[in-house]
Design goal:
Glutaredoxin; 2 domains; binds FE2/S2 (inorganic) cluster
Length: 142
């Protein structure tokens, strides 16, 4: 039994294990689990009596299927004293107004270049809404 439990079986059964329903099945799996793992692909192939290459073909053709769960890009924003003094609070508010959540941290060791932020492992000094939006877009592209 896979870590998807009976979810894959249920979705396949719903589509009567029809190979012609492969795309719909992949969409359902993606919607339920957030991705189509290799394990899920194996299970679907077995149920539909098709090859994994068939699934791989469809999966790579449709870019909206991801093979690994997508992690949201988190922005860590320093709200410690030195960064507060150069506007980290206002920056957080401005980001929130654009629907961008930040995670508060206290000192990223970049106090001389505040407001300091971190996206994934990248340290960003003199952070602004623009520079953070750009860095976030780049992180999403990776
Ligand atoms: S106070 Fe913000 S990086 Fe040190």
């Amino acid at each position: 039994m896979s870590h998807h439990g009976d979810g894959i079986a249920e979705i396949c059964t719903h589509h009567r294990d029809e190979p012609s329903a492969l795309i719909e099945i992949l969409h359902d799996v993606q919607a339920r689990f957030g991705h189509v793992s290799d394990e899920a692909a194996r299970e679907i192939a077995a149920r539909l009596n098709i090859t994994r290459a068939d699934i791989h073909g469809v999966r790579s053709f449709y870019h909206d299927f991801t093979t690994v769960p997508t992690e949201p890009v988190r922005i860590k924003l320093c709200r410690a004293e030195a960064c507060q003094a150069v506007g980290s609070e206002q920056l957080a508010t401005a980001l929130e107004a654009r629907g961008i959540e930040t995670e508060t941290v206290y000192c990223l060791g970049n106090c001389a270049l505040g407001p300091a932020a971190m996206i994934q492992q990248r340290l960003i000094g003199r952070a602004s809404v623009d520079s953070l939006e750009r860095a976030r877009a780049e992180a999403l592209d990776d």
